[in-house]
Write a structure and sequence with these properties.
The chain is α+β, with helices and mostly antiparallel strands and 255 residues long. It contains five helices and 17 strands. The chain has two domains: 107 residues, Probable inorganic polyphosphate/atp-NAD kinase, domain 1 (Rossmann fold), CATH 3.40.50; 133 residues, Probable inorganic polyphosphate/atp-NAD kinase, domain 2 (Tumour Suppressor Smad4, Sandwich). Strands 6-5-16-13-8-9 form a six-stranded antiparallel beta sheet, with no helix packed on it.
Length: 255
Amino acid sequence: MKFDTIAIAAAEGPEAQNALANLSERYETVPAEEADIVVALGGDGFMLESLHRHMENPKPIYGMNRGSIGFLMNAFEEDGLLERLKKAEPAQVHPLRMTATDAEGAEHQALAINEVSLLRQTRLAAKLRIEIDGVERMSELVCDGAMVATPAGSTAYNVSAYGPIIPIGTGVLALTPISAFRPRRWRGALLPETATVVFEVSDPTVRKVSATADFTEVRNVARVDIRRATDCTVTFLFDPEHDLEERILKEQFLP
């Protein structure tokens, strides 16, 4: 990876802030809007925040773990940062574009790097109709909710809902139900990344459902359209020995 300038950003936690102070003393930096690469110090949540923050002016993000899980992050080391950045390998992901129409007919758009999820807002189960590329695939899913996850997000909320872990580069998305009641044994589906997924909410004013694209939540939705945002690309940077595809592969063999 060739670059001339770097910026360093950090989450608010003490570990991340301490790392920011130490690295800023050792390496020359510029403001993020002027940098070729942004080094993000924190956990996976801060990595997603950083990617969203720079989505209008995309630039590679190299994360170092100063948070908790750090699945999307590289190991933290103060030494040799510039050499690591030169050797880093990119992993590019198209986010999902959510268009959520609420019960009053207003449209709301947001991008999701991890997943778009629907979740019931009340004690009543959600009832969802599912359409893929204009074809009805399920007339009624009775559930707590459902989601569409990217490969990068397949190890997050998706895996906790028993969805599949998807290697980067496979060209598929995971459609995963959340606590499905009927069909009782339906575990979801793998879809081509080019698919357009539509959820329609039955009785949206009674069986209220929210829709969330990463950090953006829309309440009382009646319909949610999800498709790949082909006009937008986010770039993660990983050390060669800890690339994202290898991490996803390892995750599938954890006890």
